[in-house]
Amino acid sequence: MNRIPFIFFITGILSPLPLFLMTIFILFYPASVSIQKLIISFVSYAVILLSFTGGINWILAIQKPILYLQSESEEINKKRMLLTISPCIIR
User: Fold this and answer.
1) In the chain, what are the domain boundaries?
2) Do 78 and 6 form a contact (C-beta atoms < 8 A)?
3) Rounded Cα gap, residues 62 and 57, in angstroms
4) pTM score, two decimals?
5) What are the backbone dihedrals phi and psi of residue 62, each rounded to the nearest 5 degrees, phi first?
6) Are 45 and 18 in contact (CB under 8 A)?
7) 66-87 residue pLDDT tens
């Protein structure tokens, strides 16, 4: 079994961090200030994160898991993994 590339591991671990930070900001934001944009950002990021997770699950469901492929195709797999996360980053 191949290991997950470090950059993808770190990206996966840190991806919920903005949700936690936005939750803290929403909870402790001064009541006199409108927090509509922050709530919209929170919901938008949560939807993107959910769609990304669903996309990964879909990929793993319809083909051989890309984390277990042979080493000669490892470069192609890295490009495919980057391609799957690019819509979430570009948004």
Assistant:
1) 18-25+35-90
2) no
3) 9
4) 0.53
5) -95, -10
6) yes
7) 555 555 556 666 666 666 666 6
